Amino acid sequence: MPSYFSRQAYFNDTVMLTLTHGHANTWTLDVIHAFQQQLSELQHQISEPDAPWRVLIITGAGERYFSAGADLDQLAQQNQSERQASHAAFAELLQQLLQFPLPTIAAINGYALGWGLDWALACDVCVAETPARLGYPEVTHGLTPYFASALLARRVSPIWQQRLMISGQTISSQMAQHIGLIEEKVESGCAKIAALSLAQEWRQGAPHLQRQLKQQSLNTMPAFHLLFNAWPESPQEAEQGLQAYQQRMAPWWRETDD
Q: Would you tell me how many other CB atoms lie within 10 Å of the CB of residue 78?
């Protein structure tokens, strides 16, 4: 399997995973499995008595995209059951990241869309650069942002939760900080530096207590695999939206049976 993530160590106890898939850092089944493998390896290492890691940082390669979300070209080639399987795999990834024992930081260095924004919001803290744009454009492709409801509920008001999910629009990092979607906004090119600075601050805390406090705070989060039954979907509109995406055209929504 190709390597979709690079791993770097800082200060001997902070690890950074960088997504490197295509120009937009999109997610396919292979990328999902590669990230899960990275987390499993790290989790095994931190279970050792002399575990070196204290903080995990995630980011995207390049300057334009943190992650543009799911690879829509791959989704367009899948039928409804295959798309559900892809969503289920990503649900497992989010659950694994959310429950990862170490404190986690998302260094958002560009566009964070759909699954890419989910990936960031599953972290404990999000730091975004000024040019970054964040949002859930799934509805513009006829797709359901299954995981947004749970992740947004941790950070923003119900009004903003609804607006982000229904409009499909992106917002600036300044607006994201204003509504509580991210914790810190920094200048272009500085997300990784800011994340590393925050990691140094966290290193002052008692590691076992930090892990216990983190797990305690997650007790009210729903299991992501249950969200499939909680939100509607429109298979016909998904087909229309993905077909339009493949043709690089705006979708023309035809009437569907409810």
A: 14
- What digits encode the pLDDT tens for the residues 75-87? 889 887 888 888 8
> In the chain, which ranges are E strands?
5-10, 14-19, 26-27, 55-60, 65-67, 69-70, 104-108, 111-113, 125-129, 133-135, 170-172, 184-186
What are the extents of the domains in the chain? Answer: 5-202
* Residues of the chain scoring pLDDT < 70: 1, 219-232, 255-258
For tokens 């454009």, what's the residue?
Answer: 137
Secondary structure of residue 256 in the 3-state scheme: coil
CATH topology for 5-202 is 2-enoyl-CoA Hydratase; Chain A, domain 1 (3.90.226)
pTM of the full predicted structure?
0.92
For the beta sheet containing 184-186, the strands, ordered from the edge strand earlier in sequence to the opposite edge, are 5-10, 14-19, 55-60, 104-108, 125-129, 184-186
- The predicted-structure confidence for 138-187, as pLDDT tens digits, reads as follows 999 998 898 898 899 889 999 999 999 999 999 999 999 999 999 999 99
For tokens 């359901």, name the residue.
Answer: 144
Cα-based distances in Å from 108 to 36, 43, 55, 78, 122: 20, 23, 16, 29, 13
